[in-house]
Fold:
Amino acid sequence: MAKEKQPKQPMPPFGVWAPAVGLAWLIPGGGHFLLKRTGRGALLLLAVTGMFLCGLMMRGAMFQPQSGDILTILINTGGFIGDVCSGILYLLSVWLGYNQPDTAGHIHDYGTKFLVTAGLLNVLAMVDTFEIAAGRKD
Amino acid sequence: MPKMNLSHFEAALLFALFTSVVLGVVTKRTDRDRLHYGVYTFVCFLVALFGLGWLMYFGHG
Structure:
């Protein structure tokens, strides 16, 4: 049996969600703090920051966009976007001169994945912030 | 900054912990469901971790 199509929800005004989502990008959990969800914001802040710091302490490498074959472009650009999504954590570490070359070893490899995943988890937090700000979620 | 030296298992466990917390927080609508889903996700990670570990162990003979 075919599922009934849910009616498309209208996009809320930009001014309603943009400040919260912007803050959620800049500071992990910041959007939740702005929307008075402090408990969840604190958990997100701890988890994303903890993951990013572990990635730094494992000496993970930051991705830089590179040209070349399609796989190289996809991996490096995707990794770079993932890194940037960590917001202030990424910006601070780059401004303070963190520049770890991509070296062999399972610890470095895990570190690189931790850094990217911290950004991707922050994207999930940003989506959650958007849904709360738009009134689609409590 | 201090350097962390973890085994594969410790690193994967830490990864599972952080990821489960975020997945639990952002996916469900009540605190009880969030806690349940976070624990469920963490257990799934553990099962996959041990399952794949044993699979590789037997695969290598």
